[in-house]
Amino acid sequence: MAVCCDLEVDVNGEETFMVDKKVIASYCGRLRKLFGKSTGSARNLKVIFNDFPGGAGNFELLSRFCYNNGRIDITPSNISFLHSAAQFMEMNNSVSGTHNLLEETEKSLEGMNYWAWSELLISIKQCQDLLPFPNSSGILEKCVDSLIGRMATSSEPSPCTSTSSPDSSGVRFSCDTRSTESLKNSFSRATWWFEDLLVLSTNMVGMVIKSMVLRKFDHVIISRFLFYYQKSKCYTGTSDEKRNVVETVIDILYILDWNSVSFKSLFGILRVALNLNISKCSRTKLEIMIGSQMDQATLDNLLIPSPYGTNYLYNVNLVLRFLKAFLHGGISQTSPAQLRKVASLMDLYIAEVAPDPCLKPSKFLALTMALPDSARDSYDRIYRATDMYLQVHTGLSEEEKMKICCALNYEKLSAEACIHLSQNKRFPSKSAVQALMSQQVKLKSLLKATDKMKCYIDSPSGVSETGRKGKKNEASEQIVLYAGKLDPPTNNEKLRDRLQGMQWRVTELEKICLKMQTQMTKIMKSRVSSHSTPRSLPKLCS
Predict the structure, then answer these.
(1) Closest CA to 309 of 242, 247, 358, 238
(2) pLDDT digits (tens, 9 = 90+) for 317-365
(3) pLDDT at 219 over 90
(4) Whole-angstrom distance between the N-terminal and C-terminal Cα of the chain?
(5) Which of 41, 85, 254, 472 has the most CB atoms less than 10 A away?
(6) How far apart are CA 192 and CA 206, in angstroms?
(7) Cα–Cα nearest to 220, from 228, 293, 121
(8) 429 close to 493: Cβ distance less than 8 angstroms
(9) Dist. CA 372–CA 34, nearest whole Å
(10) How far, in Å, are 147, 217, 416, 467, 513 from residue 527 at the CA level?
(11) Rounded distance, CA 499 to CA 489, Å?
(12) Under a CB-based contact definition with an 8 Å cutoff, are residues 523 and 462 in contact?
């Protein structure tokens, strides 16, 4: 029997098929509608498909089904192709004596839970090749749900395990009897699918991971997989492919619980992202995640080279954005310990960037004033960094120097730092005056403290009159030594001499305060002992 080939089919420009119009149309509702609208009695027709799912190979599969009287072996390796082709060609209405391909593929999908893991991966990979068509058909969603269900079932930890921190290498056991080998096996149970999912495209991985998040999958495991996927994919591929991977990973990490994301790995992906010119949106998300955990950073983390084409050494603007993200939640949400830790880190960072001759005064000032005053108990490190900056930038005007010195809190400078500042010709003279004034405030505070202690010692306390008078006279004589005029001199040399003298006085006053505190302690102890000693009782008559 001769085969009639009266229909020419162009599939996506890949290949042209000559087929029997009657045979193909008997199974495909789309062609029946098309031929029903055609006019004339032309024997040879041509149909052009520009978006046939699966291309020429899939159309060949469909043709086999039609030429084999509606019979074909439906397996996990071809079900995605056949299902999408059946939907595209509207093969959902059976003709007398024929089979419904769409109905048969949907029946086969009902047995998806019995597929092997490898068969499930093959089907998902086919869906990825057919995108975006299978997403609208619903088969992709079924495959992804089945995949995640299989992963969740196989990844359940044993009762004696607990998830470790995101920066650790495995699962920590709470049962002391478990061996190291058991720990490794438990971690492997949670991550065994990492390697298998590398075959999926970036878009498909994004779809799978977002479904895992919706199903309350462990965020620590998800974040580890994302970093693993990013590292694996960035070894090869073009710049555009790497950029797509990095942006996808960052966007997904952003929707996770940030406490489940490894801080060290965030800096790893940052260094990759800086060389790929990722989108501003993804870059901002990454900076916010890093900045929110700034108290975990180290100096090496922050010493990031400046972008190509700039003349300064380190990327100061990036660190400033980290600090902005850190403070974005508000001081009330940041513990004092975290704030002090970040301040200590920033003091080290400022000391590293201060010698950079290309660092602008505005950037240096922004670094020194980025954190609130409450973050630092001492400004000695900031003073030393400022001294280093002024030493390198010798061309600054007095006005620029004063602006830079605005970051210093003179009341939180040690006496040694104030003396050094008063003798430091790189600093403007006004700074020396402010340092002197701050020391005077300290001196007045100490005088008030010693007066209060002296009054307490003078009060009746069970101490002998002679001892009280002796201590009173001794304290009075010493305090008189420091009760002189506190007005600052105007001459710079006299100013420095006066500051050194005040430092000696402050030191002596501190000694006096310590001595008085010791005396007060003894007085309190004597009072307690006098009240607690019981009276002797008379002996009973025998």
Answers:
(1) 358
(2) 999 999 999 998 655 577 899 999 999 999 999 999 999 999 999 999 9
(3) yes
(4) 144
(5) 85
(6) 19
(7) 228
(8) no
(9) 73
(10) 78, 66, 40, 16, 21
(11) 10
(12) yes
User: Rounded to the nearest 10 degrees, what angle do helices 465-480 and 429-458 cross at?
Assistant: 170
- Joined together, the tokens standing for residue 163 give 């998830």
Rounded mean pLDDT, 17-44: 78
Confidence at residue 70, expressed as pLDDT on a 0 to 100 scale: 83
Are 255 and 188 in contact by the 8 Å Cβ rule? The answer is no
Task: Find, among 232, 222, 229, 249, the residue nearest to 163 by Cα.
Answer: 222
Q: Give me the count of residues in the chain.
A: 542
Tell me the pLDDT of the chain averaged across its residues.
79
Q: Which of 495, 374, 360, 368 is closest to 428 using CA atoms?
A: 495
Angle between helices 263-274 and 280-292 (to 10 degrees): 150
Closest to 169 in 3D by CA, of 264, 67, 68, 267: 264
Alpha carbon of residue 515 to chain centroid: 51
Q: What span, in angstroms and rounded, lies between the C-alpha atoms of 55 and 16?
A: 11
pTM over 0.70: yes
- What's the DSSP call for residue 534? P
Q: Residue holding tokens 């000032």?
A: 365
Q: Which residues share a beta bridge with 305?
A: 314
Report the 10 Å Cβ neighbour count for 226. Answer: 23
CB 146 within 8 A of CB 122: no
Q: Which amino acid is at 368?
A: T
